[in-house]
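ok, trying the design again with the full structure, not the truncated one.
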């Protein structure tokens, strides 16, 4: 910690404080994530080990950079590049609403980050506006890989279904799926795009049951044709919802272009195998139809205090099920 000095406080996470710091030699601004070990016998929290391991493997301009890790007292500190704000705050800055070109540029940055993670066999499992940070230069970067997991091409390993913040949680997770793919991230990308287009969350459920009810009411009741294997999911028979045809995409996005509706629709597909991949989404007509995405020079540049001014309320995030592994590789590949 001698290399850094604390100059402020950013917030408080699940495992400890996040402080604003500065490297004493270079003057570089950083975010210091202090992780406190409540019980030494419990060791380092699993979610933090996952984040460290995943971030050490990542080298992408659209994923937040882990600069250093070191022990301190009864815990340790993760050092990240400092990001003055996030997409959550940008969406709530009514005095500076995002333009269509800016929305498109944010989506390109998000998709490039997701493409990188998926090509490197990492699924994030908690994509949401609050985990998409914005640099001083206006670059969007994916952050908080605490629920991140490495995955194999065979997709033959079970995972916890208690991941992803509820509003952005894929329907297979809501039905208790333990075998799923990185497509859960693509559903979340569709939810984020929908929120950028309407400036309001698409599926704001207060409980898991209400969340599923809103999704079904909006998109219609799934069938074995539209969602093969849905009836075999662990929680499918635990609750029955009234059958519905769902809403038309014109109703869901009344003020959007056909291209914007089509791109969102291709992410919000019940059948995870048919969701549009990030690589494919980057060449969708939405990004090549006027108004075109803007240059980085025309993106919002958050100033000091932007995050504090638009302090995000805590999302109701379900805690992942505890899974204990002694080997890091086994932990990330399970």
């Amino acid at each position: 910690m001698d290399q850094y000095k604390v100059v402020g406080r950013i917030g408080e996470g699940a495992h400890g404080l996040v402080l604003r710091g500065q490297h004493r030699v270079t003057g570089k601004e950083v975010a210091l994530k202090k992780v406190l070990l409540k019980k030494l016998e419990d060791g380092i929290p699993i979610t933090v080990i996952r984040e460290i391991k995943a971030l050490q493997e990542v080298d992408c301009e659209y994923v937040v950079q882990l600069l250093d890790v070191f022990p301190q007292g009864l815990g340790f500190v993760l050092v990240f590049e400092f990001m003055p704000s996030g997409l959550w705050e940008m969406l709530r800055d009514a005095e500076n609403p995002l333009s269509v070109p800016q929305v498109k540029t944010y989506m390109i940055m998000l998709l490039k980050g997701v493409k990188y993670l998926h090509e490197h066999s990492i699924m994030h499992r908690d994509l949401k506006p609050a985990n998409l940070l914005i640099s001083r230069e206006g670059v969007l970067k994916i952050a908080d890989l605490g629920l991140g997991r490495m995955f194999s091409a065979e997709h033959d390993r079970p995972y916890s279904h208690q991941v992803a913040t509820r509003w952005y949680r894929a329907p297979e997770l809501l039905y208790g799926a333990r075998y799923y793919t990185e497509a859960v991230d693509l559903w979340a990308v569709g939810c984020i795009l929908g929120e950028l287009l309407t400036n309001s969350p698409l599926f704001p459920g207060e409980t898991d049951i209400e969340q599923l009810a809103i999704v079904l009411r909006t998109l219609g009741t799934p069938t074995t044709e539209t969602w093969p294997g849905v009836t075999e999911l662990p929680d499918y028979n635990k609750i029955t919802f009234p059958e519905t045809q769902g809403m038309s995409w014109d109703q869901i996005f009344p003020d959007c272009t056909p291209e914007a509706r089509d791109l969102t629709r291709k992410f919000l597909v019940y059948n995870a195998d048919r969701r549009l991949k990030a690589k494919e989404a980057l060449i969708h007509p939405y990004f090549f139809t006027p108004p075109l995405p803007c240059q980085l020079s025309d993106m919002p540049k958050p100033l000091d205090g932007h995050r504090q001014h638009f302090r995000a309320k805590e999302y109701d995030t379900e805690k992942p099920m505890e899974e204990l592994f002694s080997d890091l590789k086994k932990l990330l590949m399970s």
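Keeping the full-length input from now on. The chain has two domains: 4-82, 85-309.
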